[in-house]
Design goal:
D-Maltodextrin-Binding Protein, domain 2; 6-stranded mixed β-sheet; 11 helices; 11 strands; globular
Amino acid sequence: MIKQTAAAIGALSTFGLGLCAHAAAPAYPSKPIRLVVPFPPGGGTDILARALAQHLGTAFKQSIVVDNRAGGNTVIGSEIVARAVPDGHTLLVQINNLTALPALAAGGKSTVSVADFAPVSLVAILPHLLVVHRSSPAHSVQELITLAKKTPKKLNYASAGVGTPVHLGGALFASMAGVELVHIPFKGAAEYTTAVLGGHVDMTFGSVPTAFPHIKSGVLRGLAATTATRIKVLPELPTMAEVGLKGYDIASWYGVFAPAGTPADIVNVLQAEVARAITTKAVADRLSDYQLIGNTPAEFAQFLKRDTEITVRIIAQSGAKAD
């Protein structure tokens, strides 16, 4: 009887300690959240991050600081998050670069990779457009290819950096069309768009929200959509496949990541709120050009695995390299 009582007291003590420990665990989030964007302000990643930040700030009742850390083909911003304390208070909004970096790095050794992060959610996919300046003699993809074949290594294209969908879009185009183009990387969408608008660069494969306003104004000329299907804002524009580049299909994807080792319960809280954010009118209206998704961490992990395989194949096929 005494042994049973002692055991019961011990069990209650352990239970009590467990309750105290549970009660002592801080609620998440317990302080402002830093949302790192590895690009300058103004591009597609920044637009999406700021839309999410506004919703998350209200939902979590905490400040959400969007921290633009451009440079190193997104490595600088990505490393900040990879090395951060894995408590959910430092997050990364990243795109296709993350799966491209190892394949582009010498010997496949990149300082950051998917393994350095806990996937939270694939937030959106965004189609791109092949555009040229209105002064370009090319009025179609075939005319552009003909021009490029006549003048090897004379035509150039701008991107937001090595490994971005814009860079890979150009590299894959050159490979499939059998032409030689010069890649000119910039720090972000605002910079490369300015270069194309000024006629300093011949073309780019920019995202819809970046390129469409300038097509509408007449400064840029849209030649094709880079996705497998036509886009809703320019339904008259053919896809690359429709103009002869069968199998060409590139778009940007945008995801939220936490540092590897972040507790699953925190990752799940974040994912649930991101998924809730994209169902709100405020966020959906702000991201109307994006295909909003908001999948689970497990689904996002599977997506990343497939995307890595596709990206490695594109890089091998196109011969793209870090400049």
